[in-house]
What does this fold into?
Amino acid sequence: MPNRKKVLLVDDDSLFCSVIQKVLSVYHEIQIAHFVSSAKEKLKQNEFDFIILDYHLENENGLDLIPLIKAYSPRSVILLLSGSDDFGVVAKALSMGVDEYLVKSEDVHVHLLVRIPFLFKQKQKSIELESYRLRPNLRLPQSPDELSPEHYKEFLENAEALYLNAATELNSGDLALTAERIGLARSTIFRKESIYQFRKFETS
It folds into this structure.
């Protein structure tokens, strides 16, 4: 099946894991770890697209795994599960790099089916856009040796492409609406899109 994601579920509730595995395995490849120690071993051996992490593990805290996830599987989407909606936990998790937070409920498997592809696509778009932002020709010149008509032209083109990408993303990929809001003719923005291909960051 296309678009299958490699998912690691870290939770000490065996029954819950069985239910989630049964539902998600139809669409994704699922590995399960019941303890922080076993999760660490799986992280050292595999890179996952998506990690579902329970906050309350037996005598352990799921957040303790985040530094290791960032080290071994930095592109993973991290979704934290918890039995409560404690704002302090949510704030701490987000500050540590968690991408999403869900409260455990009877229909949590439904939410996971929806959120996994959405969050993964969102994460990939964020990674690609950040990579684009860091392109060398978007740096201001640091020395006289870097100054040239070619560098100046490429810098302006890259800056424009980045701006148009961000503007189009804010308008949900609608080029015509973006053109109207920033004062460009529709023919102009469609021509620039064909040159810069900035919609490659758009969610399809």
Q: What stands out?
A: The chain has two domains: 6-131, 135-201. The radius of gyration is 21 Å. The beta strands are 6-10, 29-33, 50-54, 56-57, 60-61, 77-82, 100-103.
